[in-house]
Design brief:
Helix content: 40-55%
Strand order of the largest sheet: 2-8-7-6-5-3-4
Strand content: 15-25%
Largest sheet: 7 strands, mixed
CATH class of the largest domain: Alpha Beta
Structural class: alpha/beta
Shape: globular
Number of helices: 14
Number of domains: 2
CATH architecture of the largest domain: 3-Layer(aba) Sandwich
CATH superfamily of the largest domain: Type I PLP-dependent aspartate aminotransferase-like (Major domain)
Length: 364
């Protein structure tokens, strides 16, 4: 038998939300009758500009993509007012998290992150054999003071998802800036902002501006959530050249497809589409909060496009909702056995989710 390293044999495969086609086949119903609110996808779909750009470029799929994503990189740099060499594009922001882990972590080095952090980052750190120090988060909010307390000579990378997944909680500008001032210069602080666009303008962190001040800051964003391009897998990181260059060195060749680059570049130009998505999400959150209050369910107010809600036995409730054609995300893998995560869907989808949840709660 092959002799795999222990840190690899202990890895658990990432388990995504249940696929619509799988449940439809199991229940013997049409996929159109299934509501999937498990993966934090955009119910409005992608920008029309992105779809049009994809259609126009469909004949180009025989060509390799631009390895450096130059057009997309320039577009991102212009939006954020940073030099293009500060932008690193990857196959989803998860790929950029992995690049950070590969370039900074190894055996004998340490990463520090909060309990209930995004599992993809934890997996990336484990794949390279690094030591992970996990800071407790009993109130679902990242404890910045304890993160700082856990830094030692082996620490190379700090990770904070803001807003967090699966918690939906958020840390404001003042706290983040105070935190960054105290992070040692030889330790990279990674702010994963996959849900940044769902924050109101007054809440949005000035993290990209802070990259100008902190050479050890890396900010990651994605086109999978608010931009509705999850199926194309494209995200990016912004950091000063010393960090950005190292990430590019470990990036797999041609990792961002030609279609992903084209769609993301177009999506950045469609402010109206993004505004509709944000407004729809805010309305959906209000609807879900009111429904959970009526059902007597505890939930964590969210700054993202999903809600963490306490239902008793999360895996069991998830299975019961599946039988009603509703896919939610059980959180046993996070140690949150009593909770499920429900993504904000369309108005009709939200109503179907609440109806199914009400029936299940009423039957027990």
């Amino acid at each position: 038998m092959p002799d795999f390293p222990e840190h690899i044999t202990k890895l658990q495969p990432y388990v995504p939300g249940l696929a619509i086609t799988s449940l439809a086949s199991e229940l013997g119903i049409s996929p159109d009758d299934i509501v999937k609110v498990a993966s934090n996808e955009n119910p409005l779909g992608p920008s029309e500009l992105a779809l049009r750009a994809l259609a126009e470029a469909s004949s180009e799929i025989a060509l390799y993509p631009d390895n450096d994503s130059l057009e997309l990189t320039a577009a991102i740099a212009a939006v954020h007012n940073v030099p293009p060499e500060w932008v690193v594009v990857g196959s989803g922001s998860e790929a950029v998290l992995s690049m950070a882990a590969v370039s900074l972590l190894t055996h004998g080095r340490q990463t520090v992150y909060s309990q209930y952090s995004f599992q993809a980052f934890a997996g990336a750190a484990q794949r390279v054999g690094a030591t992970a120090v996990v800071v407790p988060s009993p109130d679902f909010v990242v404890n910045l003071e304890e993160l700082l307390d856990k830094i030692n000579e082996q620490t190379a990378l700090l990770y904070i998802a803001n807003p967090g997944n699966p918690t939906g909680t958020f840390i404001g500008n003042a706290e983040i800036e105070g935190f960054l001032k105290r992070v040692p210069k030889n330790v990279v602080a990674l702010l994963d902002e996959a849900y940044y666009e769902y924050l109101s303008p007054g809440e949005r962190p000035r993290s990209v501006e802070l990259v100008h001040e902190y050479p050890n800051l890396l900010v990651t964003r994605t086109f999978s959530k608010a931009y509705g391009l999850a199926g194309l897998r494209v995200g990016y990181g912004i950091a000063q050249p010393e960090v950005a260059d190292m990430l590019r060195r470990v990036r797999a060749p041609f990792s961002v497809t030609r279609m992903a680059q084209i769609a993301a570049t177009a999506a950045l130009k469609d402010d109206d589409s993004l505004a509709r998505t944000v407004a729809s999400n805010a309305s959906g959150l209000r609807f879900l909060y009111e429904a959970f209050d009526k059902l007597g369910l505890e939930y964590v107010p969210s700054y993202a496009n999903f809600v963490l809600v306490k239902v008793g036995d999360g895996p069991q409730m998830s299975q019961r909702l599946n039988r009603r054609g509703v896919i939610v995300r059980p959180l046993k893998s996070y140690g949150l056995n009593e909770w499920i995560r429900i993504s904000v869907g369309s108005a009709a989808e939200n109503e179907q989710v609440v109806a199914a949840l009400g029936k299940e709660l009423g039957s027990h």
